[in-house]
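If you are new to this repository, start here. Below is one unmodified record pulled from the training split, so you can see the exact layout before writing a loader.
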Amino acid sequence: MTYTWENGAFAVLKTRYMDKCHNQHDDLIVGTKGRCYLRAPLAEITGEKPWRYNGPRPAMHQVEHDELFADLRAGKIPNDGDAMANSTLAGIMGRMAAYTGREVTWEMALNSKLDLTPKNLSWDMKLPVPAPAEPGKTLLV
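And here is the target side for that same chain:
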């Protein structure tokens, strides 16, 4: 998946999790003055200001909790709503592009009529299993 910004920066994200296959998650972010490679446990920037993370590798979810609780105890009320909404839409855009094989813009995703909500929701319902997407055939709604 490739995400492109108006300033020319772009990110290439690769993920594969399939039975009996080599699986990995790689991120490459390319800017005008360098590149950032993220592939656990590697975090490295090349270019004008090279940098490589060599510090401790704590559990990321624990760090999130520690920072949240420290802010709350200090009276700081975190509000990451915009960032969470934007990153969620970016993820949805990636899904839309991967499933349809089409380029998807921010506006296309915002204005999409796609609704994946099962009809007649109930606590005891069995969720329907959708047919696998076929890039090039699956429609962009």
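Two things worth knowing about this chain: The CA atoms of residues 14 and 72 lie 35 Å apart. Residues 1-56 form one domain.
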